Amino acid sequence: MLSRPLLTVHETAEQLKVKESTIRAWIRHGKLRAIKFGREWRITVKDLERFLNENANFAAAAD
Asked: Which of 27, 35, 45, 60 is least surrounded by Cβ atoms within 10 Å, i.e. has the fewest?
């Protein structure tokens, strides 16, 4: 059983402050893992967290 809910494309876009078309493009290009239920995509919180960690841009600390 899932311990966390699946997010819709709309919910994911709202959280990241991007357009739904951007989320769909990331899914289409294999950058963001998603599960298709009928015509709708769902993103697990774990996959969203993985995507964010892989695409984080950390600034190097100045010595």
From this structure: 60
| Crossing angle (nearest 10°) for helices 9-16 and 20-28 | 110
Quote the CA–CA distance of 36 and 57 in Å, as a whole number. 29
Residue 32, helix vs strand vs coil: coil
Residue 49 falls inside a structural domain: yes
Residue-level pLDDT at 43:
98
In a domain? residue 39? yes
Could you give the 3-state DSSP secondary structure of residue 8?
strand
Domain count of the fold of the chain: 1
Domain with 25, as residue range(s), is 6-54
